C-alpha cells in the first residue's frame, strides 16, 4: 500500500513539473518572438517572477530594457502600469494620495486615489533618476506588498511584480539607489550590448511595416499556482548549508567567515577580495533569493530537488547588488561579480565530516 502511494505521489510530482516547464516554455517562447537575444536576461526575469521577487535591470539607454518589461506584461494576462521616474516625481505620484471629494448631498470627505503602483506588474522606468526620497516610496510595496497612507494600509493586487530599469550610476542626472532599496530586489541583471547578428535581427524587425506583439499565454491565477509549486520544492540541508556559507562568505568579518566554513579554515584563508574591498555583505534576503532561484532552476531542469549547481548559477544576480564596496573597492573599480566568483571558488559544496554551519 505504501509503495502504491509513493508511486502515485511520484507521478503527481512528475505531472506538476511537466506542467510547470510547459507553461514557462510558452512564456519564454512568446517573449522571444519580440525580444531578440538577451536569453540570460529573459531567464533571470522569469526566474524572479516565478519566485515572487522583483528585478532591477541595469544598462545604457536603447538596449531594450523597457521593451522587455512591456513584452512580459503583454504575455501575462495582468494589468500593467508604467511609472517614468524623474527628479520632480513625488512619493504620492507613485503610491496615491487622499483627495477631497464632494458628494451629491454637499458633504465633503477624503477619498484615497490609488497611484500607478496598484497594478500586478509595475515598470519603474529609470528608477535612479528620481531622488532617494521618491525611490524609498517603493520600500513597503516591494517587501510587504502594501501601501500605507495616512495611517491606513491598502493591500496591493496579487500577484505583484516590480521590474525597474536604471542607467549606470556614473551617467549624468542619476542618484544611487539606497541600500535598503537594492536589497529588496530579488535579482540585479546587467543588460549588455547585443551581438552583430542580434543587431541585424533587431533592425529587420523594427524597421519593417509589421509590428510584432506578444500574445497572452499565462494568467494571474496560473502564475500564483506556479509560484506555490516553487515553494514546495524540497532543499537538502547540505545544499542549504552551501547557500548559507556563500552568503556569510560575502561579509568581511573573518570570524563569521571561518565559522561558516565549519571552523576548519583559519582566518588567513579568508578571501582577500572580501577583506580588502567589501564594506557590508549580503543580507538574509540574499540567501532567500539563492534558494528560491535555485528551486525554479531545478523545476525547469525537470527535478524536484535543488542542487549546489543551481545555487551557483543564481549567485551572481542574487548577490551582486547586495555587496556594498568600501572606498578602496569603489576607487579600484572592483566588480562584485568577481568577488562572488572568488567566494564560490573558496566555498566547498560539502563540509569535512558532514559538519554543519
Short description:
By secondary structure, this protein is an alpha/beta fold. It has 16 helices and 13 strands.
Residue runs with pLDDT of under 50 for 5 or more positions: 263-271
Number of separate strands: 13
Largest sheet: 5 strands, parallel
Structural category: alpha/beta
Give the termini distance in whole angstroms.
Answer: 39 Å
CATH class of the largest domain: Alpha Beta
What would CATH call the homologous superfamily of the largest domain? Answer: P-loop containing nucleotide triphosphate hydrolases
* Percent helix: 40-55%
Q: Main sheet: which strands, in order across?
A: 3-6-9-1-10
Q: What is CATH's topology name of the largest domain?
A: Rossmann fold
Looking at the overall shape, the CATH architecture of the largest domain is 3-Layer(aba) Sandwich
Description:
This protein starts with a helix and ends in an 11-residue tail after the last helix. 48% of the residues lie in helices and 15% in strands. It is an alpha/beta fold. It is globular and about 75 Å long. α1 packs across α2. β4 and β5 form a beta hairpin. It has 16 helices and 13 strands. The strands form five sheets. The chain has a five-stranded parallel beta sheet. The protein has a two-stranded parallel ribbon with strand order 2-11. The chain folds into two domains: 217 residues, 3-Layer(aba) Sandwich (Rossmann fold); 121 residues, Magnesium chelatase subunit I, C-Terminal domain (Helicase, Ruva Protein, domain 3), CATH 1.10.8.
Summarize the SSE layout with pairings:
Blueprint: H1 2-34, H2 39-51, E1 55-58, H3 65-75, E2 76-77, E3 80-84, H4 91-95, E4 96-102, E5 108-114, E6 121-125, H5 132-135, H6 138-143, E7 146-149, E8 152-155, E9 161-166, H7 179-183, E10 187-190, H8 196-206, E11 218-219, H9 220-232, H10 237-248, H11 254-260, H12 272-277, E12 278-280, H13 284-300, H14 308-319, E13 324-325, H15 327-332, H16 336-346
Amino acid at each position: 500500500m505504501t509503495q502504491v502511494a509513493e508511486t502515485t505521489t511520484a507521478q503527481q510530482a512528475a505531472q506538476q513539473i511537466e506542467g510547470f516547464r510547459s507553461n514557462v516554455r510558452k512564456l519564454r517562447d512568446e517573449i522571444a518572438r519580440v525580444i531578440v537575444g538577451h536569453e540570460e536576461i529573459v531567464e533571470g526575469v522569469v526566474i524572479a517572477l516565478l519566485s515572487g521577487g522583483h528585478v532591477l535591470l541595469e544598462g545604457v539607454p536603447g538596449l531594450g530594457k523597457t521593451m522587455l518589461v512591456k513584452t512580459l506584461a503583454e504575455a501575462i494576462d495582468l494589468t500593467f502600469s508604467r511609472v517614468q521616474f524623474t527628479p520632480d516625481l513625488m512619493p504620492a505620484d507613485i503610491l496615491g494620495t487622499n483627495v477631497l471629494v464632494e458628494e451629491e448631498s454637499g458633504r465633503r470627505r477624503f477619498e484615497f486615489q490609488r497611484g500607478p503602483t496598484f497594478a500586478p506588474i509595475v515598470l519603474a522606468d529609470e528608477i535612479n533618476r528620481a531622488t532617494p526620497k521618491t525611490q524609498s516610496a517603493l520600500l513597503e510595496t516591494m517587501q510587504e506588498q502594501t501601501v500605507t497612507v495616512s495611517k491606513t494600509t491598502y493591500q496591493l493586487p496579487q500577484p505583484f511584480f516590480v521590474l525597474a530599469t536604471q542607467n549606470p550610476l556614473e551617467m549624468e542626472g542619476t542618484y544611487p539607489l539606497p541600500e535598503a532599496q537594492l536589497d529588496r530586489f530579488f535579482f540585479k541583471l546587467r543588460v549588455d550590448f547585443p551581438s552583430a547578428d542580434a543587431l541585424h535581427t533587431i533592425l529587420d524587425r523594427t524597421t519593417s511595416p509589421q509590428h510584432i506583439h506578444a500574445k497572452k499565454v499565462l494568467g494571474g491565477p496560473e502564475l500564483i499556482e506556479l509560484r506555490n509549486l516553487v515553494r514546495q520544492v524540497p532543499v537538502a540541508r547540505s545544499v542549504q548549508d552551501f547557500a548559507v556559507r556563500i552568503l556569510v562568505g560575502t561579509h568581511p568579518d573573518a570570524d563569521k567567515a571561518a565559522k561558516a566554513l565549519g571552523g576548519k579554515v583559519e582566518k588567513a584563508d579568508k578571501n582577500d577580495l572580501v577583506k580588502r574591498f567589501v564594506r557590508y555583505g549580503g543580507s538574509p534576503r540574499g540567501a532567500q533569493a539563492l534558494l528560491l532561484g535555485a528551486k525554479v532552476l531545478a523545476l525547469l531542469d525537470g527535478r524536484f530537488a535543488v542542487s549546489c549547481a543551481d545555487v551557483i548559477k543564481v549567485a551572481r544576480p542574487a548577490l551582486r547588488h547586495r555587496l556594498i564596496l568600501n572606498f578602496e573597492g569603489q576607487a579600484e573599480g572592483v566588480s562584485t561579480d568577481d568577488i562572488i566568483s572568488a567566494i564560490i571558488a573558496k566555498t566547498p559544496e560539502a563540509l569535512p565530516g558532514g559538519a554543519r554551519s
